[in-house]
Amino acid sequence: MRASVMSTTLDHPAGDFWVFGYGSLMWRPGFDFVERAPARLIGLHRALCVYSFVHRGTPEKPGLVLGLDRGGACRGVAFRVSAKARADTIEYLRAREQVTKVYIETYRTITVLGTPERRVTGLVYCVDRGHAQYAGRLTLDHQLRLVREGHGRSGINRDYVLATVEALEALGCHDHDLHLLAERLKSSHHPHPVATQQ
Questions:
Q1: How buried is 82 (Cβ within 10 angstroms: 0-12 exposed, 13-18 middle, 19+ buried)?
Q2: I want to staple 27 with a disulfide (CB 3.0 to 4.6 A). Which of 3, 95, 167, 168 is the partner?
Q3: Residue 57 has pLDDT above 70, yes or no
Q4: Has this prediction a pTM greater than 0.70?
């Protein structure tokens, strides 16, 4: 990792701010941004560790979505948002990510990859390990069952996993656990039953 960081690279010029995406935000941010770049976060890792009761499942039949859990590192995407869009963007992200308050909204130092690398402060949504929807580390078979059956407000759980893997591949990243799950999902795909209106 490059350590030569100038003092000016804590990058909030003119009030712009950064958002770190590691799951669906990578491929469907839903907000306006002025820059998008690959990024790295140290100290947290991406994991399918959140039972989804809204976006990709229901309380009766939970899906499984990603959270940032403690330890390791995570490759994702950093979005720079203009100062004038700050309030609207945070409002949008809270409505999207904090429906059940399973995530902790925080700011972390992230490294925006490129030449040169930049260390910036980014808005990050980490999993709350004390929340009822925290799933912890599940077996591949358990993940597979939840993802196959999950369907919520934002669509089919399977599509969420496959779109995230596709976004990671576009970054040149290989997430061993997610890729393994994606291969199992592809090899065992059967048409999803028509969902009832919620």
A1: middle
A2: 167
A3: yes
A4: yes
pLDDT digits (tens, 9 = 90+) for 137-149: 999 999 999 999 9
Closest to 51 in 3D by CA, of 99, 122, 107: 99
Residue 179: domain span: 9-187
CATH number at residue 163: 3.10.490.10
In a domain, 170, yes or no: yes
pLDDT digits (tens, 9 = 90+) for 103-142: 999 999 999 999 999 999 999 999 999 999 999 999 999 9
Torsion of CA 113, 117, 120, 124, to 10 degrees: 20
Amino acid sitting at position 109: T
Tell me whether residue 194 is in a domain.
no
b/e burial code for range 153-169 (CB count within 10 A of at least 16 → b)? ebbbbbbbbbbbbebbe
Is 56:192 a contact under the CB 8 Å cutoff?
no
Q: What is the pLDDT of residues 147-173, one digit of tens each?
A: 999 999 999 999 999 999 999 999 999
3-class secondary-structure state, position 147: helix
HSE, CB side, 13 Å, CA atoms: give it for residue 98.
Answer: 11
What residues pair up with 155 in beta bridges, in sequence order? 152
